[in-house]
Amino acid sequence: MTELKPFQKATVKAVINAFKCKEYARRFLVADEVGLGKTVVAQQVIKQVMRGKNRPLIVFYVCSSLSIASQNRTKLLEIIEDEAERETAASTVDRLTLLPASALPEHPRLHLYTLTPDTSIPVRSGRRRDGRQEERALIHALVESIWPDFFKEHGKTFFRRNAHTWWPDWVRYYRKQVRSNTRLREAFHQSVRTEFNLKSRQRFLAAIRDEEDSLKLIAHFRNALAASALDEIKPDLVIFDEFQRFRDLLNQEIDGAAARVIGKLRGEGKGRSPALLLLSATPYRLFTQRWEDAQGTEHHTEFFNLIEFLYGGNETAQLMRAECETG
Predict the structure, then answer these.
(1) What would the pLDDT profile of 86-115 be if each residue is shown by its tens digit?
(2) Cα 170 from Cα 87, distance rounded (Å)
(3) Exposed end of the chain (fewer CB within 10 Å): N or C?
(4) DSSP state of 78
């Protein structure tokens, strides 16, 4: 494991102190030049937060690509001294939608999940909506179990789309998972009702009967499954690495279906919120020289938006933002 430099030790200490603060949201940004060891800082933050816990620390590490996630997962797991145990601490499933039907980490001190926004937030603007065939096969098995009449109206190949060779095998596999997992069925059932804003006595099939956009329906099913996963696996710490690549996740005004999953990742809603660590090598482009310049104004707005987010996005955060803006 890499030896920490003095400035990295100071950074870790500052992060931990911020996470212990009860007055403000437990959110912290570490931003510096490329190659100064932000992953090492994240690694040591995990190690510090693990101390004193009588159950596994649940960490979601979110970055822009699966290849980076895989590489940094190896680095983060170095805090576990026994190399043979490291595999038991990490999930290899890279999508929130597949976690409910997958084996979870078994390590007694750490459960690490590595994800990307593109693969884990089904209704994120401008992204693919149908997902992988494994996701759709799981949803097929769940819908078949809970609402079998769905296929009478929408056809047996509704979730199959362009999948061919492995589709029957995936469906058979997930049928077994669904039959043996009552909790999964119940969680998905309730999450779908929430996803489609159904009232207590409103029937699901009747509510979606007039929806002609099949991709939209599939995206909402995937979103419901992802949200149910976050309800089941509540993270203690969420790390957004190179968050400038997906700043839309920090948008305080996000609403609709996307807000369900993004809000849960950000720790919004009922119950204790996870600590949130943001890492960035280039959080902002250099400000232009003139404060009044239109481009510069945009940059400063982004900066103050981030300040408001770090303080929690509530009334207190808005007051802190106003104080920063007025200097």
Answers:
(1) 999 999 898 999 999 999 999 999 999 999
(2) 25
(3) C
(4) G
